[in-house]
Structure formats: structure tokens, C-alpha cells
Amino acid sequence: MGRQVEGHAHLPDRDAALLSRCDGSRPLDGFCAADRETIARWRRHGLLLMAPPLTPAPPATGSAVIVSPHPDDAALALGATVARQSARILDVFSVETWTKDPYYAERPALTRRLLLDEERVAARVLRARVELLGFVDAADRDLRRDRFFTDPAWSDASAREEPRLFDALTERLAPLLDGPGPVYAPLGVGGHVDHVACREAVLELARTGRLDTARVAFYEDQPYSLFSPAEETAKNLGERLAEQGLGALRPELLPVDDEAALTKREALGAYRIQVRKGIVRRVHRHGVRLAEGAGFPAAERIWLMRP
């Protein structure tokens, strides 16, 4: 991940050869016992992740499309759902360097590359397809460097402050969202301006008849919904949408079984630069709480537009 890992800075030739074979194409039982022991040790140290077998991808026209403001947003919010049914992930603001880690903050070019590498690894674990749209993250745009959160989160004001960007984003998404499958967009919990821009672009397509509202659902932005209630954003946004004739928002739980939950946690392990292990645990506990009394182990929550 860009830094040396203590005890693994220089691999013996045999271990280097073994590591090169850990490319996601071989089943674990295809390795000898000694190699499996080494692989298990590397996994404990966070040097590699386990991924389910690759299966034939479903037809692109019928699969779900997730509008992900940044690399990691789709996996954080809907990783278990993607693990269960596959999806196409559109990483919108994929030119990104933001991090709290001083090491990476001092190396923006490296950080930009590694953030995308993390996304590709997580997508392999989830068996998802990723498309990078190449828009610049708010933290690297002059207008937003010091203020990339807006209040209230359900307002469209921040998106309208960058009209050229908003128009370009809307037009870029239009053909990519064409088809019969469901479209998942961020609800905008927490008010990150890139999340709000993605939500409003999808809504603009719905308002102008270029996207069927019956296909659209909004997911709870993670980890923001751990700190700000999604219900408040959904209620106030729903009132605005109802006034515009798009319908209020109704919550729905997407069931998560144990296997999907495990796959999601494994995928989230790829995100070392921005997602801490404590956040991964809290996201999992949040999903368990959502499912209390529902008859399944955990859940991910979406909000549907309904008259």
C-alpha cells in the first residue's frame, strides 16, 4: 500500500513467487498446505484479502448500477448487496487525494493511484465492475478545498453553486444509467457536496423524464449515517421531492446474510488509506441493528421514491 510493512520489506524469492500467484484466479485449496499457512499469515497482516470464486457476470443491461461519489462509497453502503447480486459501480469523483494520514497527504500522486487500486481490489472481492468517471474530488477543487460539507444535507444549493460541473455530471450519467436495472444513488446523509451532487444529478434525470423514477433508490451514505440520522435527511428530502411531483421517500431493508456480510467486511479491508478498522466494525453493527426483528442477520437500507 505504498509503505514498507515491518517484517515483509524484502520477501525471499519463494515467497515473492507465491505472492505473485495470489492474483484472485486460484482457489485456496489449489495451494499446498505450507503455502496456505503462509497465505493465512499474510492475510492476518493485511497483505492480501480472500475473494469468492469468479462467476459469469450477469447481462449488463439488467444489473444494478450504483452511483458512487468516490471509491469506497458503494462498498461501504451496499457492499453486501453487491456481493449477493453483483452490480456496476460508477465512481464519479475518482480523481482523489484526500486523506488524514500525513504520509499519504504528502504524496498526492501515490495516494491517487493507491485509492483506485484499493477500489479495484474491493471490487474483485465483491465481484463488481467499476467504471471511473474521472471528476475531481471536492477536496481538490478550488471552490471546495476548505468547505466540502453543506447544511442542510437535503438542499440542492451546493450542487447549483457549481453549475458547469453539475451539468457535465448529469450529462455524463444519463447514458450510463440507461437500461432496466435498478439505480442506487447516495441519499446525501452528512451533506458531503460530492454526494449531494450525485444525488441531484440523478434527480435531475428523473425530473426531466430521462430516468424512470421507479428504478431509482437512495442508499444510506456510510459512515456518515453513523453520526447523522438518515431518517432526518430522508424526511426532509422526501418533502421536497413530493412538492416537485416525484413522490416522498419510503425506507426498505435489503437483507444481508452471513456470507454477504463476511464478503463485505473482507472487501472493506482493502481501503487502508481512508477507512479505519473501527469504522468497518461500526458499519457492520449498524447493519445488524437495522435488521433487528426482521428475520435476517443484517441489512442495508435504501429509500424509494413513491407517490
Automatic annotation (TrEMBL):
GO terms for biological process: glycoside metabolic process. Gene3D superfamilies: LmbE-like. It comes from the Bacteria. Keywords: Zinc. This is PIG-L family deacetylase.
